[in-house]
Specification:
Transfers an acetyl group from acetyl-CoA to L-homoserine, forming acetyl-L-homoserine. It is an enzyme of class 2 (transferase). By secondary structure, the chain is an alpha/beta fold. Helix content is 33%, strand content 14%. The strands form three sheets. It has an eight-stranded mixed beta sheet with strand order 1-4-8-5-9-10-11-12, with helices on both faces. A two-stranded antiparallel sheet has the order 2-3. A hairpin with a 5-residue loop joins strand 2 (17-18) and strand 3. Helix 3 (179-194) packs antiparallel against helix 7 and helix 4 (211-225) crosses helix 6.
């Protein structure tokens, strides 16, 4: 995907957006979706924060893929995040490519930013989201909710803007990236930058996008979203069926002999139709920089010392990307400052992606906490 897309409602922020880098973005465009009705008192708003490759299309068909929104099972009338009760808003993060200002956007000189786009952080993403809420006149959220990178945003909002949310629900997330997390991201970034079509990030309008590198990056990352048990159950070592009815044979990488190979290739290739390679570079770097303890004097508890919100942390027993231990470290920090916090580890076979899939216990926890 070579250009930023207009995919539904968007607005231009009325004020410049300051960034952690010291730079300022002017006329920032924010693409968003809303569900439900904002109460006259504007006290029923829930901000949903999306993950790395997510976007604002939470509970409506995706304009590119046609598939249901990424949390359609969770958000809607009578669902755990009940749009009969709550006004739900989700914006595309800055740096992304689904309508919000990012590397594919046009810079003041009339050309796409490319790699001239300023470095962004998770806290910058939150600033943009709060600026959007300001445009709606929403001073305090009923809740901020997010999974994975969305959970990072939820925690960052609670730590840096504690007056803006009554409840904080962070799912399958962490307060900082481990060396292993950073390493996996670096593999993906190098795959993109090694693609000759990357052209130092200046591939817009050339007709040659680094789709091969982006596909490999997605494949590598997707492995981390799954569990070994889940992969084994779904694919095992089963070979692909051939048109002549024979099973796969040794092909030295030219064909997808194993079903799991075919699955990963599909995930990689389909991803390139809806995502921008430079956005992937910028957003993964923002996640790697994220470290709430470092932002607050080296002690994680300091990050939440000024918060009066209620917290709920959820982890999954098969998630090896953001582990239960990662969630517990946040819970311990909240305990240290006597913040009201609930914590649950749920059992699910799907690995990190469990928060997006059919886990009835998650539905019950989410609905109960928000209510």
């Amino acid at each position: 995907m070579a250009t930023a897309l207009e995919t539904g409602p968007s607005l231009t922020l009325s004020k410049p957006l300051p960034l952690d880098s010291g730079q300022v973005l002017e006329r920032v465009q924010i693409a968003y979706q809303t569900y439900g009705t904002l109460a006259p008192a504007k006290n029923n708003a829930i901000l949903l924060c999306h993950a790395l490759t997510g976007d604002q299309h939470v509970a409506n068909p995706h304009p590119i893929t046609g598939k249901p929104g990424w949390w359609d099972r969770m958000v809607g009338p009578g669902k755990p995040i009940d749009t009969d009760r709550y006004f739900v808003i989700c914006s595309n993060v800055i740096g992304s490519c689904m309508g919000s200002t990012g590397p594919a956007s046009i810079a003041p000189d009339g050309k796409p930013y490319g790699m001239r786009f300023p470095v962004i952080t998770i806290r910058d993403m939150v600033r943009a989201e709060l600026a959007l809420l300001d445009e709606f006149g929403i001073e305090k959220l009923h809740a901020v909710v997010g999974g994975s990178m969305g959970g990072m945003q939820a925690l960052s909002l609670a730590a840096n803007f504690p007056e803006r949310a009554e409840r904080v629900l962070a799912i399958a997330t962490t307060a900082r990236h481990s060396a292993q997390n950073i390493a996996f991201h670096e593999v993906g970034r190098q795959a993109i930058m090694a693609d000759p079509n990357w052209q130092e990030g200046a591939y817009y309008d050339t007709g040659r996008d680094p789709d091969s590198g982006l596909a490999v990056a997605r494949m590598a990352a997707h492995i981390t979203y799954l569990s070994e048990a889940g992969l084994t159950h779904k694919f095992g070592r089963r070979l692909q069926d051939r048109p002549n009815g024979e099973k796969g044979a040794i092909s030295f990488g030219f064909d997808a002999d194993f079903q799991v190979e075919s699955y990963l290739r599909y995930q990689g290739l389909s991803f390139t139709s809806r995502f921008d390679a430079n956005s992937y570079l910028y957003i993964t770097r923002a996640m790697d920089y994220f470290d709430l303890a470092e932002e607050h004097g080296g002690r994680l508890a300091n990050a939440f010392a000024g918060s009066s919100a209620r917290f709920c942390l959820i982890s999954f027993d098969t998630d090896w990307l953001y582990t239960t231990s990662d969630a517990r470290s946040v819970v311990h920090a909240l305990n240290a400052v006597a913040a009201p916090v609930s914590f649950v580890e749920l059992s699910a076979p799907y690995g990190h992606d469990s928060f997006l899939l059919d886990v009835p216990a998650l539905d019950r926890v989410v609905g109960g906490f928000l209510g």
